[in-house]
Design goal:
With 244 residues, the chain is of the alpha+beta class. It folds into 2 domains: 18-63; 74-232, Glucose Permease (Domain IIA) (Distorted Sandwich). Helix content is 16%, strand content 32%. The chain is built from 3 helices and 16 strands. The protein has helices at 23-43, 49-62, 149-152; strands at residues 20-21, 64-65, 76-78, 83-91, 108-115, 122-124, 129-137, 155-161, 167-174, 181-183, 190-191, 196-200, 204-210, 214-216, 223-224, 230-234. The chain has an 8-stranded antiparallel sheet. A 3-stranded antiparallel sheet has the order 3-16-14, with no helix packed on it. Helix 1 runs antiparallel to helix 2 (49-62). The protein is elongated. It starts with 19 loop residues before the first strand and ends in a 10-residue tail after the last strand. 34% of the residues are buried.
Length: 244
């Protein structure tokens, strides 16, 4: 006879909290606070200080590092960045990602995510695996929303190899006001899907290259959440609205 006992009810609660500021950004928050304090003492009041305090809050928000819950399952690729999906198209691979040590010869589907200065700028690995390449390239700082930014802007290519040997590549691209790309990983490091792997300061873009057999699971104009939004899946059709 089946048990009539009711399943236990969770009694704990989850409370919202302000996201922490990433250690990389704390020095900038302190600098902004120091400038605000200096303005206050020089001006002798709050009138000129409020704008600088506003900038301080924005700097803290820019470097915010929220907790993310990454979906688990085989054949999933999660978004490496928060932002707007601006391009989904078949493209030739950048030279730095092509070849037997990279992603092969391509072409592959590229999903581009544009991060405004109001988005979270902590980037996360889209899959679990081993970092095989981290290639930094100096360049220009044109608008990251333009297609040519993939070839002309300062950028950093990262290749991750999954346990089954499949290689995934993504590129951090500096934007119009971005001036530094940081990587928290190096070749040989083991990473898990959704792990923090770097950031780009002050507006930028991330391109993700889907391996053969994987289909995009986002559409143009959709907003992605780093470490949570599934942007690619193997053996599943692309949703309506995806431009190939």
């Amino acid at each position: 006879m089946p048990s009539l006992e009711k399943p236990p009810i969770a009694t704990s609660t989850v409370k919202w909290r302000f996201p922490a500021v990433h250690p990389e950004g704390r020095k900038y928050v302190l600098i902004a606070l120091a400038i605000s304090a200096l303005v206050y003492f020089i001006s002798g009041g709050w009138f000129w200080t409020w704008p600088f305090l506003g900038v301080t809050l924005w700097v803290a928000a820019f470097f915010r590092d929220p907790v993310r819950v990454t979906p688990q399952g085989p054949g999933l690729i999660v978004a490496p960045a928060d932002g707007l999906v601006t391009m989904i198209q078949q493209v030739a691979l950048p030279p730095e990602l092509a070849g037997p040590q990279g992603l092969g010869e391509g072409p592959l589907t590229r999903v581009s995510i544009f991060m405004s200065v109001f988005d979270v700028h902590i980037n996360r690995t889209p899959i679990t695996g081993t970092i095989r390449q981290v290639v930094y390239i100096s360049g220009k700082f044109v608008n990251a929303d333009l297609d040519k930014a993939s070839d002309e802007n300062e950028r950093q290519h990262i290749v991750v190899e999954a346990p089954d040997g499949t290689r995934f590549g993504f590129t951090q691209i500096a934007g119009l006001v971005a001036r530094r790309i940081l990587a928290f990983v190096k070749p040989g490091d083991m990473v898990v899907a959704g792990q923090r792997i770097g950031l780009i300061r002050f507006g930028s873009r991330v391109d993700v290259f889907l391996p053969a057999g994987y289909q995009p699971q986002v559409i143009l104009g959709q907003r992605s959440v780093a470490g949570e939004t599934i942007i690619g899946r193997i053996g599943v059709e692309a949703p309506t609205g995806v431009a190939q």
